[in-house]
Design goal:
Structural class: alpha+beta
Order of helices and strands: HHEEHEEEEE
Oligomer: single chain
CATH class: Alpha Beta
Number of strands: 7
Strand content: 35-45%
CATH topology: Nuclear Transport Factor 2, Chain: A
Distance between the termini: 49 Å
Number of helices: 3
CATH architecture: Roll
Helix content: 25-40%
Low-confidence stretches: none
Mean pLDDT: 93
Shape: globular
Length: about 120
């Protein structure tokens, strides 16, 4: 008899996501909670980071963003709101970006979950 790992519900994925954000463990969020074929979508016309397809591209996008930060002053994340196979959070940060100065960024992030993994993230700012 083989044991099969239980698939997390959307609520469980959201809870783990929030738990890891409070520990500032974005690496574990990507490794534990994202599917290999996940996609990341930025707002239309955004001057920021590009869309990314696949976990490797999403990790690279995060690394590129982190390199562009000169200093992180503070950050926050709301509790998750779950609806069906989606959850959303509000988050923000106060950062000094290299070559752009200090700024506050606030956004709403929506995540789609299938088979216990995040398959899509979309940002609104």
């Amino acid at each position: 008899m083989t044991t099969q790992e239980a698939v997390m519900t959307t609520q469980e994925v959201a809870n783990r996501f929030i738990e890891l954000t409070k520990e500032n463990r974005w690496d574990l969020i990507l490794d534990e909670l994202y599917g290999d074929d996940a996609v990341s979508i930025e707002p239309a016309g955004s001057q920021g980071l590009p869309h990314a397809e696949g976990i490797a591209a999403i990790k690279k996008k995060g690394e590129d963003f982190n390199v562009s930060i000169e200093e992180m002053h503070s950050g926050w994340c709301s509790d998750a709101v779950v609806g069906g196979n989606h959850f959303s959070i509000a988050m923000g940060m106060d950062v000094t970006m290299k070559g752009a100065g200090r700024m506050k960024m606030d956004e709403v992030c929506v995540y789609e979950v299938k088979n216990g993994k995040i398959v899509k993230e979309q940002f609104f700012y």
